[in-house]
């Protein structure tokens, strides 16, 4: 190689190293496909705010909702992969291939993992009218009357719908599905006596549990929730195969420099270790995470396989 070429290559490597060392040197945009005020929106904003406070860097959250998150995900997948555009994601991202026959924008690897911010386990609750007080009692009642009990969801293909289908499969029971236009409507259905069973977020159900309008049977996680310490986890309740919930995470366009991914994961993990954020996460019935990109990638792979199998078995399909 000529001396001029060697000098040019060395200069380019120095520039790249310098740019990586300075990251971030301009605002980071977080595309948020979730509605304002929801669990994913809250998790993203509180972590972004904490990172901004501790690093002095600027993180801008941009809500871009529509089509069950597809609008935001597609915008992120097509963004310049320079570390200055990332996207908030949740469990429904891993359900898309099963629901749509693949990711709508094409390449399954257009988004790469950064980290999971929080894990939000689901909870099985029933109407007090059923006079059921344990998960095994619910399973026995459903087996005695196949299809007679119903469950509500936030709509066909929603995370609650797919998760309840997993519950049905693991328990070996048949429940009739009543899809609503959102989870608040499904909850209203239970409160007014139209819905027998719900698989719902811990924090969402807690006020209704405290007022005895919902009976909690089990948290769909290995252990009890700090917010509902009297309610068993599904392992304790005798249904270890039913692990379900909603994680909220950050991902980046394919090709994003590893230095940027590592900085974002590291700062998010630090933010989630702060006592005030830990308390806020716990009050939502969730658990702080901050895992590595490799660990997050494993979660995505496992969830893709698991949810695709559930969706196919239940014959759920969206267009």
CATH superfamily of the largest domain: Bordetella uptake gene, domain 1
The ordered H/E elements are HEHEHEHEHEHEHEHEHEHHEH
Individual helix count: 12
> How far apart, in Å, are the first and last alpha carbons?
55 Å
Q: How would you classify the helix and strand content by structural class?
A: alpha/beta
The CATH topology label of the largest domain is D-Maltodextrin-Binding Protein, domain 2
Radius of gyration: 22 Å
Q: Indicate the CATH architecture of the largest domain.
A: 3-Layer(aba) Sandwich
Most strands sheet: 8 strands, mixed
CATH domain class of the largest domain: Alpha Beta
Instruction: Give the % helix.
Output: 40-55%
How would the global form be characterised? globular
Note the beta-strand portion: 15-25%
Count of DSSP strands: 10
Poorly predicted regions are 1-19
Query: On the 0-100 scale, what is the average pLDDT?
Result: 90
The number of distinct structural domains comes to 2
């Amino acid at each position: 190689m000529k001396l001029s070429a060697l000098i040019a290559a060395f200069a380019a490597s120095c520039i790249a190293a310098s740019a990586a060392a300075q990251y971030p040197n301009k605002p980071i945009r977080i595309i948020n496909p979730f509605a304002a005020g929801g669990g994913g929106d809250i998790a993203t904003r509180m972590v972004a705010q904490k990172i901004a406070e501790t690093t002095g860097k600027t993180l801008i959250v941009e809500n871009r909702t529509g089509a069950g998150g597809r609008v935001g995900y597609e915008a992120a997948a097509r963004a310049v992969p320079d570390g200055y555009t990332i996207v908030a994601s949740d469990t429904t991202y891993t359900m898309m291939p099963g629901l749509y026959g693949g990711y709508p924008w094409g390449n399954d690897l257009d988004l790469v993992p950064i980290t999971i911010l929080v894990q939000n386990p689901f909870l099985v609750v029933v109407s007090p009218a059923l006079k059921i007080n344990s998960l095994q009692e619910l399973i026995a009642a459903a087996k005695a009357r196949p299809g007679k009990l119903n469950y509500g969801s936030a709509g066909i293909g929603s995370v609650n719908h797919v998760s309840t289908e997993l519950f049905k499969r693991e328990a070996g029971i048949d429940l009739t599905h009543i899809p609503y236009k959102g989870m608040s409507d499904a909850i209203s259905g239970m409160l007014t006596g139209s819905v027998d069973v719900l698989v719902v977020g811990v924090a969402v159900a807690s006020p209704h549990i405290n007022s005895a309008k919902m009976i909690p049977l089990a948290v769909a996680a290995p252990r009890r929730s700090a917010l509902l310490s009297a309610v068993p986890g599904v392992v304790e309740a005798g249904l270890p195969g039913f692990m379900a919930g909603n994680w909220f995470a950050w991902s980046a366009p394919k090709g994003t420099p590893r230095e940027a991914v590592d900085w974002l994961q590291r700062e998010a993990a630090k933010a989630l270790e702060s006592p005030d954020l830990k308390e806020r996460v716990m009050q939502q019935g969730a658990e702080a995470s901050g895992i590595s990109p490799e660990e997050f990638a494993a979660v995505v792979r496992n969830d893709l396989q698991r949810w695709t199998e559930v969706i196919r078995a239940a014959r759920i399909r969206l267009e």
